Structure to design on (413 residues):
């Protein structure tokens, strides 16, 4: 049994309910007196949270969530209200470790962003609000500026497809960034609730309740503003797991752009090359195996592996080769740049770890007319010539066949 984070909208201590949750969740309790924002913890039948593995330059092993500002964000177009905290909630020392882990867990392996403004960062509202919180004594500006952040999000939630949700803003201390300790501002929004059961005691008897709560594993949107590089728009990690108005969170609310470092550029070009070449490489004939289209993608990644730096001109000359393919790739790259709103540099240092990740995305599926599908993964396709699979034709049965050689079945097959 472990502790789970619980956000109370309604009191539980004054109505005689002692709760035991059966799902790890931030809970919104609808029954009881004294409506308002409260915070508590309940037990749950789930494995304990583990601190997330993070990139080497960012570590949360000593981080602590201190003050919290809560809000309910409606949609102005549907005349839904905005409700915000009246006071900063101070996290009990016994609950800090669990709550901190819940807050920082979503920010693993994310691309760095920064606040951006066409004129000046001083005119960027989120940048200004974050700076005011970071520079206030002992986080005293968290309540006022946190409520201002909630108001900004509410004003940006005016599209009919944007869902209402619960917002949690937390000041997190002792984040390690490039070996130095700093602080961060965590903003999480959940737009969905999960039903779960809780058992309470009342008048000496047990009662079963169904309630709606937020599953920390399924928080919809979030950002972590780290107090570094303040003159460049801070270092911001952000995610949006919804498929709707995705630009609303990153562009309209946060106003951030990607930090175009070596990792981002390597990943962008490697992924772009693999997807483009797998799609554009033609088969020699209808009888060619499906993995033949992966050869060009494999050669593209070999180009990255053999160099310390990337030059687009060399890539076009040595990998794409023909002017027709170069023109199509340029069109493909321009489309991606337009969709992301982020132009890609043509020369940069190559990040080897991101090439390894790109390799895993190479794959092929062989679909047969008898309902059988053979999935070929990257470790098979990256071999220039693989003798463990044969294709042929059976004259007696008048049918094609595929023969696969292997040593043993892998666990879970």
């Amino acid at each position: 049994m472990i502790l789970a984070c619980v956000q109370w909208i309604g009191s539980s201590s004054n109505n005689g309910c002692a709760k035991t949750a059966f799902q790890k969740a931030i809970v919104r309790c609808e029954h009881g007196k004294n409506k308002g924002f409260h915070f508590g913890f309940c037990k749950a039948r789930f494995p304990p949270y583990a601190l997330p593995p993070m990139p080497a330059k960012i570590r949360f092993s000593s981080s602590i969530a201190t003050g919290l500002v809560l809000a309910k964000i409606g949609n102005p177009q549907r005349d839904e209200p905005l409700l915000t905290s009246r006071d900063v909630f101070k996290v009990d020392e016994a609950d800090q470790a669990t709550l901190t882990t819940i807050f920082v867990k979503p920010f693993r392996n994310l691309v760095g962003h920064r606040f951006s403004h066409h004129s000046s960062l001083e005119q960027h509202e989120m940048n200004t609000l974050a700076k005011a919180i970071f520079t206030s004594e002992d986080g005293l500006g968290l309540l006022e500026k946190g409520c201002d952040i909630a108001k900004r999000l509410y004003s940006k939630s005016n599209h009919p497809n944007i869902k209402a949700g619960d917002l949690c803003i937390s000041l997190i201390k002792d984040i390690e960034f490039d070996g130095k300790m700093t602080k961060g501002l965590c903003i999480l929004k959940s737009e969905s609730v999960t039903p779960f059961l809780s058992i309470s005691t009342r008048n000496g008897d047990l009662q079963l309740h169904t309630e709606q709560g937020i599953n920390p594993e399924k928080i919809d949107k979030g950002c972590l503003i780290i107090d570094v590089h303040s003159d460049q728009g801070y270092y911001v990690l952000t995610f949006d797991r919804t498929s709707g108005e995705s630009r609303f969170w990153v562009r309209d609310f946060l106003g951030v752009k990607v930090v175009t470092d070596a990792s981002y550029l390597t990943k962008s070009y490697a992924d772009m090359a693999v997807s483009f070449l797998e799609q554009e490489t033609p088969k020699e004939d209808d009888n060619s195996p499906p993995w033949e289209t992966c050869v060009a993608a494999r050669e593209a990644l070999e180009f990255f592996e053999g160099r310390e730096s990337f030059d687009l001109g060399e890539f076009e000359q040595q990998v794409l080769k023909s002017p027709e393919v170069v023109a199509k790739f340029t069109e493909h790259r321009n489309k991606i740049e337009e969709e992301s709103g982020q132009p890609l540099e043509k020369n940069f240092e190559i990040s080897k770890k991101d090439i390894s990740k790109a390799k895993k995305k190479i794959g092929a599926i062989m679909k047969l007319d008898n309902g059988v599908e053979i999935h070929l993964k990257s470790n098979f396709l990256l071999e220039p010539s693989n003798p463990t699979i044969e294709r042929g034709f059976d004259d007696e049965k008048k049918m094609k066949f595929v023969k696969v050689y292997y040593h043993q079945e892998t666990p879970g097959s």
Remarks:
- The chain is about 25% helix and 30% strand.
- The first helix runs from residue 96 to 104.
